[in-house]
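> example.struct
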């Protein structure tokens, strides 16, 4: 599973990375996680508010930090 965290490195971006890793670990999925901080790359996903979570090329969440349980649902 290819996971990307889109954001400039703010506290919310770091929190999204933490909860995403936690959810993926709890599900036992094989994943890679990448932090995307380049504004042009973030805009290429049509994301206007960060942080955002991209799962296998598809934006699943933008502008908020969902709970571990919510992310587990997105990854299942």
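> example.seq
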């Amino acid at each position: 599973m290819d996971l990307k965290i889109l954001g400039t490195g703010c506290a919310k971006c770091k929190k999204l990375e933490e909860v995403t890793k936690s959810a993926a670990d709890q599900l036992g999925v094989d994943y890679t996680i990448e932090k995307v901080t380049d504004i042009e790359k973030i805009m290429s996903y049509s994301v206007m508010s960060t942080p955002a979570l991209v799962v296998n090329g598809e934006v699943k969440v933008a502008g908020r930090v969902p709970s571990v349980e919510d992310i587990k649902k997105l990854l299942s």
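> remarks
The longest strand covers residues 2-6.
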